[in-house]
Amino acid sequence: MTGEPAFMAVSPPGGDACEHHWSMTDVRGGFLVVEGCYHCGARSSFFSTEPVPPRDEYREGEHVWEYLSGEQAVSFGLRCDLCGATPDLSAMTALEMSLCEDPDCEVGRLAARLDGQASVYVALCGDSTHESGHCVSDEGVAALEAYFNQGRRPGRRRIVVVPCRLRNHADWCPGVVISDAGLIDL
Amino acid sequence: MKLSEIVEKIGLEALGAWEDGDIPGVYVSDMASDIITGAPPGCLLLTLQTHKNLIAAANVVDAGMVVFAHGRAPAADVLELAQRVHIPLFRTPDDTWTCAGRLYELGMR
Question: How far B58 CA sits from the closest chain A CA (Å)?
């Protein structure tokens, strides 16, 4: 491996005193609703626990949001079994396995640097433009990465998690979102 | 139980390259969202789901092998993705219930 991803260096929530052991908490089933603005091409997503995902078209500032998809998905939090720390994952709407190889995208460059020794997953927030300045928190990203690596078998590829703000563009940074797409094909 | 032992005793058809290893248990699910919240590392994942997101979920939980029930086989791009992350894929003509029963009879839990 040629260098550690920046987000692996983030101090875990609760400080360095605890060698966290994470468990999943607050697991909720629902729908990952994706909307697009047909004026500017921005994407917005949110997690809905309503029985039927909302399909409203509405204006918000300069955006006019239109429903694009609503796939069954899950939302969850993490909690340290040892110290009770709960990293902020409130902004995360989904997790995506990155397939990006674009040298102009930081996620693609990271995957190239890892050279097959790790799989890159992107923690997606709801605002592809990041106009709000918010994304999945660094402590949340670090905890996700630790959680998915803590039980892995020796010799297996590690999991590296990055926030979606590293992507060059939501449409040009390909990946596979972990949702229940394809269920109707069964 | 060894992966090779399971392949032999259940009569699984390999859908690509695989290496032997220990398989500590079984998880049955057709939902990626369920897999990431429940499948233990190293498990045999028994499923009907052949969508690419199955591989994304299986990889993040470090599944030891995936078995597609009812003779299902995923598309070429899904097979390629599984090979890329070294998740061995197999299929069985059995339905999920029958295959799960046979795995149980082998002592898998």
Answer: 10
**How is residue A21 written in tokens?**
């052991």
| Coil, helix or strand at residue A23 | strand
Q: How far is A31 from A46, CA to CA, in rounded Å? A: 8
Question: In the block, which residue shows the tokens 């928190």?
Answer: A137
Model ipTM value: 0.95
Q: Of A29, A148, A185, which is closest to B60 when you measure between CB atoms? A: A148
pLDDT tens, position by position, B83-106: 999 999 999 999 999 999 999 999
- Least Cα distance to A88 among A17, A35, A10 occurs for A10
Residue in chain B closest to A117 (alpha carbons) equals B85
Contacts of B96 (CB under 8 A, 6+ apart): B28, B46, B47, B48, B69, B70
pLDDT tens digits, A26-60: 999 999 999 999 889 888 999 999 999 889 999 99
Interface test with A, best of B37, B52, B60, B86 (most A CBs within 10 A): B60
Per-residue pLDDT tens over the stretch A114-161: 988 999 999 999 988 888 889 999 999 999 999 999 999 999 999 999
CB contact under 8 Å between A176 and B55, yes or no, is yes
How far is CA A42 from its chain centroid?
17
Provide, as residue numbers in chain B, all residues whose Cβ is less than 8 Å from the Cβ of A97. Answer: 55-56, 59-60
Could you tell me which residues are beta bridge partners of residue A104? none
CATH number of B3-105: 3.40.1390.20
Residues of chain B neighbouring A159 (CB-CB closer than 8 A):
60
